[in-house]
Design brief:
Layout: E1 5-7, E2 9-13, E3 16-20, E4 31-35, E5 43-49, E6 54-60, E7 62-68, E8 82-88, E9 93-97, E10 101-107, E11 113-118, H1 122-127, E12 129-131
Antiparallel strand pairs: 1-9, 2-3, 4-11, 5-10, 5-12, 6-9, 6-11, 7-8, 7-10
Amino acid sequence: MNVPLIKGQNHKDNRGNLTFFNDFDMTPIRRFYITEPIDTHSIRAWQGHKKEQKWFYVLEGSFKVILVEPDDWDQPSKDLPYKKFALHANNNEILNISAGIATGFQALEPCSKLMIFSDVTLEQSIADDYRFAKGLWYKW
């Protein structure tokens, strides 16, 4: 499972701070949304898409993000390997999640905000939506 992190940059001067992602090609982006978990105990897991690609960017706070590549979308194995990421707003990174991956995430700090970009419309995403039990691959 290849999961690239797109590293952003900062410029600071007497007028303030500028954060930018010149290496982030937004051509495929169709929509974005922001999720703000109610607390650090809430877990959003597992949701996957065979066709949809996503990008995660932390606006505030930090998140634990777990990624799994299901081997069968109707009855996946329970012992699949996963990749774990800790994303922090101050690290200035975008996590690129390719199609065919299931995601789970949890805020690590109060008032955390996660911006999610998608390369499909909402209707296309709903038609390609797969949900799995929270404890299937990772013990939150």
